[in-house]
Amino acid sequence: MWTLVLLLIAALSIIPLGFKIDFLKVELPGISRWSAARVALISLFLPATAEEIFFRVLLIPHAAEQSSLIYQSLAIAISLILFVAYHPLNAKFLMRSARGTFDTLPFLIFATILGLVCTAAYLESGSIYPPIFLHWIIVIIWLLCFGGYRRLYAKAGER
After folding, report:
1. Which residues does residue 3 pair with via DSSP β-bridges, in sequence order?
2. 139 with 43: CB under 8 angstroms?
3. Comparing C-alpha atoms, which of 12, 34, 33, 15 is closest to residue 24?
4. Mean pLDDT on 47-69
5. How many domains does the chain have?
6. Distance between CA atoms of residues 46 and 108, nearest Å
7. Average pLDDT over the chain, rounded to whole?
8. How far is the CA of 57 from the CAs of 40, 51, 52, 78, in angstroms?
């Protein structure tokens, strides 16, 4: 239930702002169902699972570790900063098609919201699965319903 509440919080934060600043548009990518399923499956592993393992599990102490509040707060802040900074670096060095998207202020604001929501899910549940689910569902909805696919995979002149 907590995961669905966090998903609703993310949606109510991102969607209205995304439309207001013209970053989100209701737009289907015009790809086959097979291609859409492939995008969804790939997105489950990268970015959702890989990023959540690194930015949440490896960087934020688990509740069972009984870390001090100061240490946990510092770990959360570092994790969030690295998570947000990772995206423009990813666009520069790895996923060059994301240039002009991952390095924009709207995307970085949305990445910050996503990072906060996934961190809350991890801290509340103590499990990696809720943040992976949240990350995955938000990414595939953006890619397949709100113009993310075009932003990342269309030729530069078509964006």
Report:
1. none
2. yes
3. 15
4. 96
5. 1
6. 18
7. 95
8. 22, 9, 7, 13
